[in-house]
Design brief:
The structure holds two protein chains of two kinds. Helix content of chain A is about 65%, strand content about 0%. The radius of gyration of chain A is 23 Å and the shape is globular. In chain B, helix 3 packs across helix 5 and helix 8 packs antiparallel against helix 9. The chains are: A mainly alpha, B alpha/beta. At the A-B interface, helix 1, strand 1, helix 3 and helix 16 of A face strand 21, helix 10 and helix 11 of B.
Chain lengths: ~400, ~450
């Protein structure tokens, strides 16, 4: 009579009751179920959705840990003017801000998933495990928890559950949450207060003001970026929790690509799309069309490859654009989809200085168009088949 | 002029328990049965009732809607039971076998001098017609149709599948007669696809031989059709298994319907995996008697990807040339969804490391390794699906019963077995073969 047997007995007990879905979620979390094949192939691949989702979470962990350190580092940098990076203090300050974000994200999100699973009598599905991890990584560190809770509730219900749950949604749920935050509390999400912990009420830390502007914010105001390329690459810059360090994002990308969970097609073509758009802008910025005083000049003349280092572009490309549910599903479609995400991201960045973070909008926009892209890719296949018929009868 | 084919997409699942190339003699089964369920879409009309005595080759029932298609008894003896299920559906027609087998005499024929009508008449009246299936729909062909071509697969690429060269050794003469008869059935070509080094097949005039190489499903006839001469809307092709061509050949040469075949006993559940000579419909318990290991094992009539769940009380399937026994996987596995699984095989590399040992043979069980989910992960099926078809899109079109879409996406070209591999690798644990069968049935009803 071990845990296994006890859980099995409880499973029988809860069968058909309101507790069934909730209990099963817990049970299948602890144990791979004993279900066997009945029809079709008698053997099945060892991978399942839980394992795939788990791989994505593991790929996100480096970004999370870096984000925790960076939150503390930016905080201390802002109030003291100088700070070490790898200190326990940074970690504790960061953790004190980010762990609550994680708890709210998972608590509210999974809570709603459990409620919907119970009402609709379907299994609690794994999709939110990744969404719940993504959300704290793409919000500013000082976002109020209640805002996050409201946004998560919106994202899970409107972004996913009304479509039927995991696998049925049209938009990326994590980005839906992020977009909800942005459009409801735009002042919070694009100003310079929330990116560095303490910016909202600097008096608590004995300083008059904390300037926590992001690099994109600075560029949009034609300001001078004070960070080195190495800082941008390693991520010692203000920004959403997990998105600043391209180095750790690349580690995540490597995990996703080596395991085959993330789509290389999407990632690569998105990078190419961003680079091409960046090159176009760099070219235009060199002409007379855009004088140095123009409000677009700062972002247009920003070296094209550095677009990949700042803001959420790298994070978005690696972890958001590759979401298989909301992305294009055909191989050719993925290339088009990824390219347009990169291309449009940089375009939005430059043309909308009030809203420099374009990648979120680009991905959501392409989420909407992904089925259309797939449609035309599939139609090409259908046409080929039809042509075969024609050449035969001709 | 032959057109060799090779495919790059696909997947070989390597399992332990391959049948040794030896044939064991078995005492004959006492009871044989014909199961109408082996013939998809056939509604049986009984000819032989309980208590009748039949010869090997005497019809037991015919198909409602096409009374030419007869289904013969594999043995001579007495019909001892017509087992019925819900709504009086006929499940099994059991025949207790005589000690000395008596064969119905259909007369010896020379296939080279027969015309199409004569061949069709001979095959239908002798009960050999059900061997011939058609694409689209993967059902028994209608003798009234004109197929554009006939395809025979001479390779078996499924996991633990029988070795065709071994199974057909010494059958050149009957194969020759069988293939000659097939060439009469179509105005198009008879295509035979064989393995690179196969030497089991005789040269027959009018039969185009293709050499095939690649992973599973290269042995599936749909794959071969797609590569050689794809099916278009409105066309029909006929397919038949090479072993059954031999049975047809034997009928022509001897006048007897001899439903005997060499069946591979494979899988980790057998003490001595090997081949046995048995007749269609033999009791599975007799075939595997004394050969199965102690423990919780599953008996499958057919291979692990497309076979049907069987048991010792059950009977060998009409088309099956293999019995596979693998362990049942009905146990819980602590954190089995995230820890590495060295004993399991996966195309995924997500904390699964079977890709590091590509030649290792696995002892897989029947655990689903996860729960049923909506389609989430994309781009996976295409890696093992060699046809020019979008498998997930087709499955979704079937699920929403969109006939135009199914047609456009290529439903006429596929059989359920083509989706066995995508079903195997499906992370969402969907039943692809069942979905495809459902889609084909919708098309039969709506388009015909």
């Amino acid at each position: 009579m071990g845990l296994k047997q006890n859980l099995h007995n409880l499973k029988e007990k809860y069968k058909g009751t309101k507790m069934e879905q909730g209990f099963n979620a817990l049970h299948t979390f602890l144990y791979l179920p004993n279900s066997t094949t009945h029809s079709g192939a008698h053997i099945r691949d060892a991978a399942d959705l839980k394992r795939i989702m788990n791989t994505v979470i593991m790929a996100l962990v480096p970004c999370l840990i870096f984000g925790i350190f960076n939150a503390g580092y930016q905080h201390h940098l802002a109030i003291n003017g100088a700070a070490e990076f790898l200190t326990m203090d940074n970690f504790l300050v960061g953790a004190s801000k980010i762990i609550p974000l994680l708890l709210v994200s998972y608590g509210v999100g999974l809570g709603i998933e459990f409620i919907f699973a119970t009402i609709n009598k379907h299994e609690v599905e794994e999709g939110y495990l990744v969404t719940g991890m993504l959300v704290p990584l793409i919000v500013p560190v000082d976002v109020p928890l209640w805002m996050l809770a409201v946004a998560v509730a919106f994202g899970v219900i409107i972004g996913k559950e009304i479509f039927g749950g995991t696998g049925m949604n049209i938009l990326n749920p994590a980005l839906t949450i992020r977009a909800f935050l942005f459009f409801n509390w735009a002042g919070w999400m694009s100003g310079d207060k929330v990116w560095v912990h303490g910016g909202v009420n600097p008096a608590d830390y004995g300083v008059d003001a904390i300037s926590g502007e992001t690099i994109l914010g600075t560029l949009a105001g034609n300001g001078n970026v004070s960070y080195s390329v190495m800082d941008m690459f390693m991520g010692y810059i203000p920004g959403s929790v997990g998105e600043t360090s391209v180095f750790f994002i690349l580690i995540g990308a490597l995990i996703l690509l080596l395991t085959g969970v993330g789509s290389l097609r999407i990632m690569l073509s998105a990078v190419i799309g961003a680079v091409i758009m960046g090159l176009i802008f760099n070219g235009v910025a060199g002409t007379d069309l855009v004088p140095e005083g123009s409000k677009f000049f700062g972002l247009m003349s920003f070296p094209f490859w550095q677009h990949l280092l700042v803001g959420g572009l790298a994070f978005g490309i690696v972890f958001m654009a590759t979401d298989p549910v909301s992305a294009a599903q055909t191989d050719t479609g993925k290339i088009i989809y990824g390219f347009l995400i990169g291309f449009i991201s940089v375009m939005i960045r430059v043309f909308n200085p009030a809203f420099p973070e374009g990648v979120m909008m680009a991905i959501l926009l392409m989420n909407v168009f992904a089925p259309t892209i797939d449609h035309y890719v599939v139609q090409a296949n259908v046409k080929r088949r039809m042509n075969r018929l024609k050449t035969k009868t001709a | 002029m032959s057109k060799d084919i090779s495919i790059r997409k696909g997947l070989d699942i390597k399992l332990v328990g391959e049948a040794e190339l030896t044939t064991k003699d078995l005492p004959a089964s006492k009871v044989y049965a014909l199961r109408p369920d082996d013939f998809h879409g056939v509604i049986p009309k009984l000819i032989a009732k309980q208590g009748h005595t039949v010869k090997a080759g005497s019809p037991l029932f015919f198909a409602k809607g096409n009374d030419k298609v007869l289904f013969p008894s594999p043995v001579s003896g007495e019909v001892i039971e017509v087992k019925r299920g819900e709504k009086r559906k006929i499940l099994e027609i059991k025949v207790s076998a005589d000690l000395d087998q008596v064969y119905e005499d259909f007369g010896t024929k020379d296939p080279s001098s027969m015309n199409r009508e004569q061949v069709i008449d001979h095959l239908t009246s002798s009960g050999c017609w059900p061997f011939i299936k058609q694409r689209p729909y993967d059902i028994i062909a209608s003798p009234d149709d004109q197929p554009k071509a006939i395809f025979v697969s001479g390779i078996n690429s499924a996991p633990l599948a029988p070795n065709m060269d071994f199974v057909l050794a010494g059958k050149e003469e009957v194969l020759k007669a069988g293939f000659t008869a097939l060439t009469k059935l179509t105005e198009g070509k008879v295509h035979l696809t064989i393995g690179k080094s196969s030497n089991a097949f005789p040269q027959v005039a009018g039969v185009e031989v293709h050499k095939a190489s690649g992973k599973h499903p290269v042995g599936l006839v749909s794959t071969q059709i797609a590569k050689i001469d794809p099916i278009n809307k409105g066309e029909k092709v006929w397919v038949i298994k090479a072993e059954d061509v031999a049975i047809i050949g034997e009928l022509l040469l001897t006048g007897k319907y001899n439903a005997e075949r060499l069946v591979a006993l494979a899988g980790s559940g057998f003490n001595t995996p090997s081949y046995v000579k048995v007749k269609q419909g033999a009791t599975v318990g007799d075939i595997v008697a004394g050969n199965i290991k102690e423990g919780n094992y599953r008996i499958i009539s057919g291979d692990v990807l497309t076979g049907t769940l069987s048991s010792k009380e059950n009977f060998l399937g009409y088309y099956d040339n293999q019995i596979t026994v693998i362990p049942e996987g009905d146990d819980y596995d602590f954190f089995g969804w995230n820890k590495p699984q060295p004993n399991k095989f996966s195309v995924s590399r997500a904390t699964l490391f079977s890709f590091l040992t590509p030649n290792k043979k696995y002892d897989l069980n029947t655990n689903t390794n996860g729960e049923h989910r909506a389609f989430v992960v994309t781009g996976e099926y295409e890696k093992v699906f060699p046809l020019d078809i979008y498998p997930m899109q087709l499955l979704k079109a079937i699920l929403v019963k969109d006939i135009d879409e199914m047609e456009a996406l290529g439903i006429y070209e596929v059989a359920p077995e083509d989706f066995a591999l995508t079903e195997y690798i499906c992370i969402s644990k969907q039943d692809h073969q069942r979905i495809v069968r459902q889609g084909l049935d919708i098309m039969i009803n709506e388009v015909g």
